[in-house]
Amino acid sequence: MKKPVVVGCGNMGSAIIEALLQQGVYDAQTFTIVEKQQNPYIDKLATQKAVVLDEIDKLPSNLELVILAVKPQDSASVMKQVGSKVSADTLVISIMAGISIAEIDSLIPGVQIIRCMPNTPCSIQQGMIVYCGNSRVSEDSFELAQQVLSATGRAFQVTDEIMIDAATAISGSGPAYVFFLAEALKEGATRLGFNAEQSEMLATQTLLGSAMLLNQSPNSPEELRRKVTSPGGTTEAALKTFAEQQVKEKLIQGFKASYDRSLELGGKKFTP
Ligand SMILES: NC(=O)c1ccc[n+]([C@@H]2O[C@H](COP(=O)([O-])OP(=O)(O)OC[C@H]3O[C@@H](n4cnc5c(N)ncnc54)[C@H](OP(=O)(O)O)[C@@H]3O)[C@@H](O)[C@H]2O)c1
């Protein structure tokens, strides 16, 4: 299996490494980590015999697998430096938001490239990653990417890179939409007389229980919703208000605004 080098071991880089260790995909000593900042997690990996470097220049050449997990603003200088350490066999997996396959290819030419869109639940191995590769990615490399990325939750491949923008709007930004619903539940609970602690518990446990039920049940979200909704009952009263206010349509418009912004940041045109 290709030996992994992780460039940038902040929030996402460390989440991916930890997921790979916990899922037994790699041992700590197989990792090389390049990170400018010292942190306790990296110190722990170093005690487990991972190689820790503070500069890309110190990496050997002919890297096998490089996971790029630095902030987009650092991407250009990092990719230029990584470009001198690769061969045609190198697989580069980028989790950097908004950096296209073409941009990566221009700075790290001739390699296999996989661009992905993760989300924050990757930090607890409940993430969603959507990824797309360039034409050089071999079948074996796609298999490896699936294994590596699904260690952080669930992952699937798309063939058209524009679907990375679509995934950004749904799963990438999605946790914020769910936290927004949690805020609304919490505020609603407080207005109905619960104290802050009770409101927080009501919101969190309702979301957690419903998400787990949705995941475990063979039923669709619509079917599960209908099961809670008796005619003329309390749930129906709330759902009727949502329908009158077109809440679902407004949310979908919000997702589309996120998609348009993702296209705009990537220098692409809006869809009509
Ligand atoms: N967090 C999310 O939910 C999420 C979701 C989707 C995608 N992403 C993507 O994930 C990437 C990483 O995000 P993050 O939140 O993990 O960032 P982060 O916590 O800032 O981690 C990046 C780390 O890389 C280090 N670094 C920068 N340049 C370096 C270099 N030349 N050599 C070695 N280390 C270097 C940074 O050090 P300094 O601080 O000193 O610069 C920082 O410690 C971003 O591109 C982001 O778009 C994140």
Please give a structural write-up.
The structure is a single chain. The chain has an eight-stranded mixed beta sheet with strand order 3-2-1-4-5-6-7-8, with helices on both faces. The chain has helices spanning 11-22, 40-47, 75-82, 101-107, 139-150, 162-172, 174-191, 196-216, 221-228, 234-244, 247-265, and strands at residues 4-7, 32-34, 51-53, 65-68, 91-94, 112-117, 127-133, 153-157. α6 packs across α11 (247-265) and α7 (174-191) packs across α8 (196-216). 31% of the residues are buried. The mean pLDDT is 95. The protein is α/β, with parallel strands linked by helices. The protein has two domains: 4-160, NAD(P)-binding Rossmann-like Domain (Rossmann fold, 3-Layer(aba) Sandwich); 174-265, ProC C-terminal domain-like fold, CATH 1.10.3730.10. NADP nicotinamide-adenine-dinucleotide phosphate is lined by residues 7-8, 10-13, 34-37, 56, 69-72, 74, 78, 95-97, 118-120, 172.
N-to-C span? 44 Å
Radius of gyration: 22 Å
Overall residue-averaged pLDDT value: 95
N-to-C series of helices and strands: EHEHEEHEHEEHEHHHHHH
State the low-pLDDT regions, or none.
none
Give the class from helix and strand content and strand pairing: alpha/beta
Cα shape: elongated
Q: In the CATH classification, which architecture of the largest domain applies?
A: 3-Layer(aba) Sandwich
Largest sheet: 8 strands, mixed
| Strand arrangement, major sheet | 3-2-1-4-5-6-7-8
Helices and strands, with pairings:
Blueprint: E1 4-7, H1 11-22, E2 32-34, H2 40-47, E3 51-53, E4 65-68, H3 75-82, E5 91-94, H4 101-107, E6 112-117, E7 127-133, H5 139-150, E8 153-157, H6 162-172, H7 174-191, H8 196-216, H9 221-228, H10 234-244, H11 247-265
Parallel strand pairs: 1-2, 1-4, 2-3, 4-5, 5-6, 7-8
Antiparallel strand pairs: 6-7
Helix pairs in contact: 6-11, 7-8
The structure holds NADP nicotinamide-adenine-dinucleotide phosphate (NAP).
